[in-house]
Amino acid sequence: MSISTSATNRADAPAAAAFEGSRPIYDPATGDLIGEAPVHTVEDLDQAVETARVVQPAWAALGHAARSACLNRAADAIERSAEELARLLSREQGKPLNGPNARFEVGACAAWLRAAAATPLEPETVVDDGETRAELHYRPIGVVGAIGPWNWPMLITVWQVAASLRMGNTVVVKPSEYTPLSVLALVDVINGELPEGVLNAVPGGREVGARLAEHPAIGKVMFTGSTATGKAIIRSSADTVKRLTLELGGNDAGIVLPDADPQAIAEGLFWGAFINTGQTCAALKRLYVHSDIYDAVCESLTAVAKAMPMGVGLDENNVLGPLQNKAQFDIVANLVQAAKDSGARVLTGGSPDAGQPGYFYPTTLVADIDNDHPLVAGEQFGPALPIIRYSTVDEAIAMANALDVGLGASVWSSDPAAAREVAVRLEAGTVWINSHGMVNPMIPFGGAKQSGYGLEFGVEGLKAVSVPQIING
Ligand code: NAD
C-alpha cells in the first residue's frame, strides 16, 4: 500500500468532517516540508464522537474473539506497511530508522496489538459459598477518547487504542499537533481491518483535546502527555465524572550502587537516558552515582556517548536524531546553558552547532552539578543527562524521592538482592534493575505521584478500559 502524507482518515467519511484547513509539517532534521496535516475543529470532533457512539454497540456485540481477530489482522497490516510507516515517522518525529527508534516503534505497534488480542479476561467468581454467588464481569465503557504526545506518537496511540478496542469500546484519537501525519497513517492502516467508525482520528489543537476531555458522550480519556495538561484534563472531565488513565511527565532517577561495574553498565545507562534522543517519558533523567565509582562511571558513559552517531533519521548509520520541535530544543539548550553558568562540568556535548540545519542538540553529559539545579529538578526531555555524586545510599534514595513525580526509576548493581532492597524504597511506578525504561506488553505500566494514575498493558490494561460489574445472585 502507499501511505499518503495528507488527510488520510477513513473514519472521517461517516463524520463528513469539513476541516478548518491544513497545516504544513516540516522535518525537524532538515526543515524540509513533509506534507499537509488537516486541522480539525471542535465541531468535527463532535461528529466523530457521534459516529463512534452510534457504532459502539455493534462493535461490542461482535465479542472478544472477533474483535481480537480484527486486532491481529491490523497487526499484520502494520507489518506489511512497516517500512513506509517507519520512514514517515522518522521524517515527522525525527527519530532515526535504526536503533530503538522508528522501525522499532512500528514493530512494537504490531506486538502491542497482538498482545491486547491474546490477553484473556474472563469473568471472575468472587464469592460462591452455597448461599451467595457473585461474579465480577468487565463491560465496555462506550466511547474512549485518546489524547497523545509527539515523542512516540504511533506506539502510544496503539497503547491507548488496542486495549480499548479489544474490550468493545470505540475510540476517538486526538494526536499531538506536532506529529499528526504519523498517527493518521497508522490509524488508516488499522482502519483497513476494522468496521467503519470504530476508530476515528481528529487532528487538531488543544481546543479539540479540551473538548474531548469534557464531551458528555466520552466515557473515558486515555491521556499521555505533560503533568500540566493532565491536570487540565482532570478539571475538564470533572463534570461528566469520566474515568481517566493519566500517563504524565516524569523525571526518572537512576542510582548506581558502589559495587556496580562501570564498564558493564555504561551502554545500559546510555540507552536508558538517551533512547529517542532523551525524548521519552520513562527515560533516565537524573543519574546518582556513588563517589567511589563516580569518575569511572563518568568516563565509561562518556566513551559510549561519543561513539553514538546523531543525524538525519533516514541515514541508516544514525541512532540519535534531532529534538522534535523548536520549543523542546530551547528548553534543553537553556537548561544546559544554565548548568554551565552555575559551574557544572560538561563531559561531552553542551554546544549545539549553530550552522547545522534542524533541531540537533548534541549528546550532553553534565557532571558536578547541584541536585537542586533546574537541569536535575525539572524534566529536560532531551539529550542532556546530569550526573550527581552521592556518599550514602540513604542520601541517594532521599534525592531520588524528593520530586513530586515518580514514573520510573532504576538501580544499578552487581548484587541483584541489594538492588532490590533499594528498589522497594523508591517512589516510582516501575523500578528497573540494571536497565531503564524497558516496557513489555504483558507487564503493567503507570506512574506514581504526579506522573499520573491508572495502568496500561496486560490484564490490568484491559480492566482499565472496562466498567467492572458485579452480578450478585
Ligand atoms: P502536552 O501535554 O503538551 O500535549 C499532549 C497532548 O495533549 C497533545 O495532543 C495536546 O494537543 C493535548 N492537549 C493540550 N492541552 C490540552 C487540554 N487542555 N485538554 C486536552 N488536551 C490537551 O505533552 P507533549 O509535550 O506532547 O508530550 C511530552 C510530555 O508527555 C512529557 O512531559 C512526557 O514526560 C509526557 N509523556 C508521558 C508518558 C507516560 O507514559 N507517562 C509517555 C510519553 C510522554
UniProtKB/TrEMBL annotation:
InterPro entries: Ald_DH/histidinol_DH, Ald_DH_C, Ald_DH_CS_CYS, Ald_DH_CS_GLU, Ald_DH_N, Aldehyde_DH_dom, LUC3-like. The active site is at residue 247. Residues 23-466 form the Aldehyde dehydrogenase domain. Keywords: Oxidoreductase. Gene3D superfamilies: Aldehyde Dehydrogenase, Chain A, domain 1 (3.40.605.10), Aldehyde Dehydrogenase, Chain A, domain 2 (3.40.309.10). Pfam families: Aldedh. Transmembrane segments: none annotated. Belongs to the aldehyde dehydrogenase family. PANTHER family: ALDEHYDE DEHYDROGENASE-RELATED. This is Aldehyde dehydrogenase family protein. It comes from Arthrobacter hankyongi.
